Amino acid sequence: MTAKYAFFKGCFTPVRLPWVEKAAYKTLEKLGISLVDIDDFTCCPEPVGVGIVDNLTWLAVAARNLAIAEEENLDILTICNGCTYTLRNTIHKLNEDKALLEKVNEIIADTGHSYKGTVKVHHFIEVLRDEVGLKKLKNSVKRPLSGLTVATHTGCHILSPKEVMKFDNPFDPTTLDNFVAVLGATPAEYDMKTMCCGWTLMTYGAREGAYKLLGDKLGDMKKAKADCITVICPQCFYQFDMGQWIASRKDIPQYNLPVFFYLQLLDLAMGAKIEEVGYSLHKVQNLSVVNKIK
Amino acid sequence: MPVQIQYKAKDKLLKKYPKIEVCLKCNTCALVDPVIYANGFSHTNTFINDVFSAAEPEKNQNIWLCVSCHKCEEICPYEVKPIEVIEALKDEAFEKGYAPEGIREEINQVLTTGYAFPIFQSLAYINRIRGQFGLKTLGERKVEDIRKIARKTGLEAKISGGKSK
After folding, report:
1. What's the pTM?
2. Do residues B72 and B48 touch, judged by C-beta distance below 8 A?
3. To probe the interface with B, which of A204, A263, A282 has the most B CB atoms within 10 Å?
4. CATH code, A141-290
């Protein structure tokens, strides 16, 4: 049976990492997950900017997005930790507080939508874990990535607050390691696994700090013999790829650690060629790593 | 030197968040906080110290470096939840016009395009790349719905009439 989800692509992936969107369609559909495009979705909205400075607008815009999925009778599938955080926190807040729910529905009434509280939001990695299962995933592997040691970075917003996100242990996440292992690769055991990628430092005024953070974190990955990094959030991808590229001009050593969104790794393991997964558009490329994917 | 938290804006912050008085300045939060990497911070001069000891903490630009990762809240042995205070300060700072330009611009983008960052200057390029992967072109999102919402919550007025510093 094919499971159907409303595909919530967010902003960052379709604009800056379209090859990740492509990998989502390709790999998930092969695994029996059907993604339904919904043009009416808007920005989730982004949690760190809009979410903090105007909580009510954040909840209302998110509630409108949730209501649209409800109208289609579909649960939402996301490919971004930030979108998952916004939508799931909105569900948590509105389903717990009837007065707030009424207030938010009154605000979005003019848009012709109303949030009922029936929709669920799933990050794609949760769909792979709960709907597809590791066994089926393992069976889909045509080319085991056995030459690769992969440093996993789960990211912040899918882990915390843990009572809302309910994904993994925020201080010792292991889910993504299992997903790397199932593709035949070796997960790297490194120290700074749960340290943030540094996105906010980079974006809102502390670039030097972001470089220092990257230097330490990538250094730890390298010490653990990682060939590459895998992530499940587009901002983390960008920070480790573009951020690493900028920082390694002068601020940190040339670690040359390519980043793969997990869906790209999955695509490669399912048999895709490196040229097909958008790797040529990555900032950090390393031939010796590519040579290990054979 | 032990970290001192002076709570200069004590009355207001304490009234709203009485739990910050429980803070033992143990710096456990500094072990997991990415902001420690910003200039001027260390494990002894922490972000929490910087925020709470400022005379007018809402004017402190460093509050915008918080990524809302909730790690400080989850590791705090006394359940102080510094993130609640930092988020409330951001809220207040935005109201008073102290938010950095990047934040104001991001909100403006969401309200005017439905995307969280500028895309229309480079839309042709973005769509060319999307085309290479056989993906649909991107265009306008339902901005009118977002504007209706922002009009009702007052955010539209705040962003167009708000002070900029």
Report:
1. 0.95
2. yes
3. A204
4. 3.40.50.11810
